[in-house]
Amino acid sequence: MIMGARVPGTGWTVFVAGVSALPTEVPDGAVFLRQVHGSRVLNSPEPFSEGDGMVFPADGGRFPGVLTADCLPVFALWPGRVGCAHAGWRGLAGGVVESLLKDEYGLPDAVVLGPCICPGCYRVGEEVSRLARGKGHPRGRFDLKLEAVSRMAPETRVFNLDYCTLCDPGFHSYRRNAATLRNRVWLAPDRMRHDILQLEPITADPHEKPGRMHA
Ligand SMILES: [Zn+2]
Predict the structure, then answer these.
(1) β-bridge partners, 135
(2) How far apart are CA 57 and CA 43, in angstroms?
(3) How far is the CA of 110 from the centre of ligand 1 (A)?
(4) Ligand 1 mean position to 72 CA, how many Å?
(5) What is the pLDDT of residues 148-181, one digit of tens each?
(6) Which residues surround ligand 1, an ion (CB under 5 A)?
(7) With respect to CATH, is domain 2-198 assigned 3.60.140.10?
(8) CB–CB of 97/152 below 8 Å?
(9) How many CB atoms lie within 10 A of CB 136?
(10) How many Å lie between the centroid of ligand 1 and the Cα of residue 142?
(11) Coil, strand or helix at 46
(12) First to last CA, the chain
């Protein structure tokens, strides 16, 4: 079973294939990369090229996809162009969001943050805490969405799929079982059948926390 959330005003949907999805439900046009927690964003790559982001023309029949098991998938839509980034703390620190949203494309019509581990679930050690310091992250934890949004222009129109890959058993989570299975998340025109998820608009103000907290 595929879940999907329409991106308002764009004609595109973010699709999510989690635990209950069959491989055959993912369309051939969805392209996934060999992700390495880096910051390279590729222009119209072949499937399984090495990189952590990609951009395609919107009319080319190929769609940007991200494999996740707690990391954050980020999607961007511009007039005539769509793209994505795979963003864990390492990729965020390396600038993968800035690489995707580089100035030459202009401000996107919308950015969508997909399901990832929530800050309540994501305890981090000293190395990551140092990166997080002074930015509003909960103490001893890391908020991937807060960090991603803090790296966008303040006027960016951001939508959030507010699901945690660890809290919610519908998603694969590396921290739940270290499985090799991944959620497949991609952006495509809205013509597939799917269960409807809701996108929530969020602010690009880094001081307003986008993620949910869990006890
Ligand atoms: Zn959680």
Answers:
(1) none
(2) 9
(3) 25
(4) 13
(5) 999 999 999 999 999 999 999 889 999 888 767 8
(6) 118, 121, 164, 166-167
(7) yes
(8) yes
(9) 14
(10) 11
(11) coil
(12) 29
